[in-house]
Design goal:
Length: 235
Amino acid sequence: MEYANLSPVEFRHLVRQGQFTGPTSGYCPGYTQANLIIVPQADAFDFLLLAQRNPRPCPVLEVADVGSRQLHQFAQDVDLANDFPRYRIYRDGQLVQEVTSLDDIWRDDFVAFLIGCSFSFEAELMDAGIEIRHITEGVNVPMYDTNIELHGAGKIQGQMVVSMRPIPGSQIAKAVEVTAAMPRVHGAPIQIGDPQAIGIQDLNHPDYGDPVTIRPGEYPVFWPCGVTPQNVVPK
């Protein structure tokens, strides 16, 4: 966490130079973080429609121009092909590679979407006295595929992904209140305390991220997650 208090521009430059390639939870507190989804222009309308129909897991912060690696509103001094610590590349619906730069594969027909990220509300939760366990343990937030069907769009269909944070029972109401006020980064939890109700069988084996400790008196609290598009990439 040595870079935790850098400004967003300073942090992006660090990433652009290849000096940081890990999860960004806990960094740049007080600023909005985002997930990045890049699709060919032929799939862009379907994805935008999917996001419009499913604003909880896919809250759109900005859409870049076709072929552009820059943004107009959300941030300045941006290179979308290099300013994210890691990029997961899917072909024909399958994950084929994870890289730290898209320079070699960037195309003129790419359309980039910024999707709100729940890392954004973690500083607010900590300010309210709520521990964020994956930050404490130095790992990525655990994320799980669910049985919650999305409202599909064209050939983009699938289920929601959720992130999980263990919260003491006495602090759940406060966690709901804090995050409900931030709908552009997923808002309030979608499920509390019953993972099997949304199709999660084993909290110790997340589909993305890392497992965390759940202590006595704590409940797993699940938020819609911006990783959802990885679960519904076009085949």
